[in-house]
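Hey, I was hoping to borrow your eyes for a little while. There's a protein on my desk that I can't quite get my head around. The fold is given in discrete form, as structure tokens running alongside the sequence. I'd be grateful if you could look everything over and explain what you see. Here's the protein in full, and shout if anything looks odd to you:
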Amino acid sequence: MTDTQRKIDPLDVEALEKSLNDSATRVSAIWISYLAFGLYLLAATINVSHRQLFLADAMKLPVLGIDLPLFGFFLFAPLLFVIFHVYVLVQLLLLSRTALAYNDAVDSALTSAEDRTRIRQRLANTLFAQLLAGSPREREGLLGVILKVMALATLAVAPLLILLAFQIQFLPYHSTTITWAHRLFIIADWAAVLMFWPAIMNPQREIETRLLKRPASAAPTIILVLFVVLVPSFPGEPQAPLTRAGRYFIPPSESKSPHCNGRSWFEWLMPNNFDRISLPGEDLIEDDKIARAAKVRRLGRRFASQAELSRSFQNRDFSCGWFVGSGLRYADFSGAVMHGASLGSADLEGATFISTQLQGANLFEAKMPRARFIGANLEGATLYLAQLQSASFGNSALSGANLSYGRLLGANLSNLRGYGVNFEYAEMTGADLRWSDLKGAKMNGARLRGADLSYARLEGADLKQARLDAANLSHAQLQGAQLGNTTAKLADLSDASLWRAQGMSCSEAYGTAQMQARIMMGTASSDRTETDATPQTISALINRTVQNVPDWLRKDLQDVLTGRLNAAPSAPPACMTAEVPLPEYAGKLEAAMTDLTCTLGADRAYILERLQTNLDLGLFSVHERALAAGLLGADERSCAGGKMLDDAGRAALQSAMKAWP
């Protein structure tokens, strides 16, 4: 009889034994590779530092040896691991079905239990061959329990822990996309275990998704889902407050870090700062990149170019990050979310924060000369004692922020929204605050010499003991402002609204301010109207003033304005009624600016930068001319700021002065 005519025996024990041993050996090799891959990924993951997360340094993908961005590694590595794990489960399921055929053949061919035991001893000594088809001694008792625990630990528990390590380790990066991908990977991996494991242990069963609905599997599934969604979460996620103690979102009037007050109840389970980047006191930018950025910045560009930036962190999320004392010079945080970030004493010279969200951030004593905060939101932020010389805050939001005792010489604060902002005792000589909305601002003792506050909204502001000498206050709104012991020598008060403003020394000021008994309504010359001061019109003025003020300040500002605007009017000082001729005023202003720049020392450079910026923008008036004369040193004093200029810059200033005789 030929081989093709020979009848195939479906219960051939020897053939099935060989097939089972071969399959078990292959599955064991796959299982060991899977374990090695998982351990390698775990080692690579737990060694990722906060510095790597912050700088987004590239990582080498295990096995393939491909360099991937950090973002790509944390997305594709766990995905590959889940696929590998499912592949192992599939191979194990196929092995269990082969073992079922072998078990049936042994039970059919041999009637003696001892013979069946002896023949099963011929199987390969691999974990899964013994677990699925071994003798009763291997499958039962203590050894059987050990084999099952090893299988469950490596195929059910370990994968979840490895995937959870990915999620927790990457959490400080604050990527919603990757974090939710990790959560889905964990849930999908657990679902695969629930579907495959019963069929592996009982190969007569089919793979069933309805097992997920049974109470025995539904309860741990619900617990797992709640854990991975709620516990490893980061500030800013909608569900994060559910597992954090304390109030989570607190208005700027009540807290300096509204986004970071809640601390997780599960911190004892997690690594330190598991939900935020923490890099205190570290130099995070390479020296060569800083030198290149500083060199390009000195060329005088008004707008940031890529060459001016040492590192780009655009559109990243660093909420509640801890960067106290870190070095981040010329870094670019444009569009970043940095709610409640701690940057106290950090070196942020020349850094860019265009449209950055910095609500409640702590920038105490930070070094930020020439930093750019254009369009940034710094509501409730702390910038106490910060160095902000020549910084740009144009069109930014500073309501409730604290910049007291800060150094803002030559800073650009034009067009900002700063309801209730605190500038107490800040050095703001030569600062630009044109068109800024500073209702209810605290500016006690602020030094605003030579500053430009034209068209600024300062209703109800507190300017007691402020220095406004040689400042430009033309068209400024100061109704109900507190000006006790404020000096404004040689200030420009033309068309300024000082109705019911209380006390100011303004000798030799230029222009006639509005302090008469009638109310001036409107913010610009084109829409101003004059009306009688009656309780109704005063109330209308107050309501109009506080219309866009945030809730946390509106009531206080309304009470302040009500008290001050309804008070008995005081006699205006002589400077409000005596018109000083413009040529006389310009000459005195020029001399005052020369004296002022001489007192500033090296800080003259910041005033010079502001003046050059205004020249580039075509903004040149009697104040700019006087400032230019002071910096050039019209009387040839040794302290002339013009010595800081190159020939082209000096020629530009001289040309502008000639154009404004």
Notes: The radius of gyration is 37 Å.
